[in-house]
Design brief:
This protein is mainly β and 180 residues long. It is 13% helix and 37% strand. The strands form four sheets. A four-stranded antiparallel sheet has the order 4-5-6-7. Strands 1-2-3 form a three-stranded antiparallel sheet, with no helix packed on it. Strand 2 and strand 3 form a beta hairpin. The longest helix is centred in the C-terminal third of the chain and has 9 residues, at 140-148.
């Protein structure tokens, strides 16, 4: 399996297994945002100068809206969408990381993680779970214990919402904004 990364604005993939395509450059901007330059980058949005100006830095790098980091070998590691990050207390939780930790629980058929307002912490981590068997759904404590084997405890869900399905696009991409 090969992990790929790219956007419509880059005309498809720009990195395979963290390795950038030839002549493609990535830098990490403020807030950990991945910014891109290269030969496959779009010139702009058709007939939308304002959106084009918002999409690029003043020096011509595309703002992806994704968070990531470059390791010591210059390999790109994508954390997730900046607007999906959950700020709980003084910590940042990436939903994809929590989903990956919970997805393999035997009582979980599908999962999505999102932040919801919390009066004490700013936001709390919420797990939306489709149970493998409706007659025996996982408990919040089961999921927290399972996730804590792989993650720091503060990243584990503080709320569980059982759902019949996770909202996805026709291509299977999670529609996080459509979660209840």
């Amino acid at each position: 399996m090969v992990t790929t990364y790219g956007l419509t604005e880059t005309c498809g993939g720009i990195a395979y297994d963290g390795r950038l395509f030839e002549d493609t450059a990535v830098r990490i901007g403020s807030g950990g945002e991945i910014q891109v330059q290269g030969p496959t980058l779009m010139n702009g949005y058709r007939h939308d100068a304002a959106a084009t100006a918002d999409a690029f830095t003043l020096d011509g790098w595309l703002r992806t809206g994704d968070a990531g980091e470059l390791d010591e070998d210059a390999a790109l590691h994508v954390r997730g969408r900046l607007d999906d990050a959950i700020r709980t207390g003084a910590e940042t939780v990436w939903p994809q990381e929590v989903e990956s930790a919970i997805r393999h629980h035997p009582k979980v058929a599908d999962v999505a993680i999102a932040g919801r307002p919390d009066p004490e912490w700013g936001a709390r981590v919420v797990a939306f779970v489709v149970p493998s068997r409706g007659t025996d759904p996982p408990s919040l404590e089961e999921l927290r214990d399972h996730a804590a084997e792989r993650l720091a405890r503060f990243k584990c869900p503080r709320e569980l919402v059982l759902v019949e399905e996770i909202p996805r696009t026709a291509s299977g991409k999670l529609r996080r904004e459509a979660l209840p």
